[in-house]
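User: My collaborator sent over this chain with a note saying "see what the structure looks like." That's all I know about it. Can you take a look?
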Amino acid sequence: MSNEELAIKAKGGDRDALTALYLNNQRLLYKLVSKYQGIAQERLLELEDLEQYAYLGLVRALKYFDPAKPYRFTTYLSRNVMNTVREALGLRYSKEHPKQIDTISLDAPLPGREDDEITLLDALESPEPSPAKRIENGELQEQLRAAIGTLSPRQRQVIRLRYIDGMKLREIAERIGISHQGVLSAERNALEKLRKSLRTAQRPH
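Assistant: Without extra context I'll predict from the sequence alone. Here is the result:
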């Protein structure tokens, strides 16, 4: 059965057709999202997260798919998957290339916490990153990204929601479905692991 035939059935509520449509286009979906893996890692997201956004993009494509028009379903699919992933990663676009709206900041106030000006660098209790502020924190940024890669998926999720999205512990607990104490424990363990990784990376070789 063609993509278009499956899309018509899926658009009408056929769950089996939706599953078949997803399976038929897995290679295309992977190709579309894999180019954003680097940016996703900076957002503390994994390939599985991108694949979830790809699925949401497919569902979104069904909403706009019009079998009366002379366009293949993959045309709708590509556009809507790309838009869904871009929105999820916080990207805006020029004609030339995507630009990131925000990146991990070590010394800027955390989102939603401008009043007390807590930074990720403060949370990690890192020593003064001289000389020259470690090249305006560029070196620390790279070390931090590498350190984040050593965290568990749950720890990465908590750090992302807490220090990039600026959510409170209670909000994170509700979002990911664990207790307040569970979030606090994950945050503490993640920060301690990051501290150790950064200290190791900063030792003279």
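A starting point for your reply to your collaborator: The longest strand covers residues 91-93.
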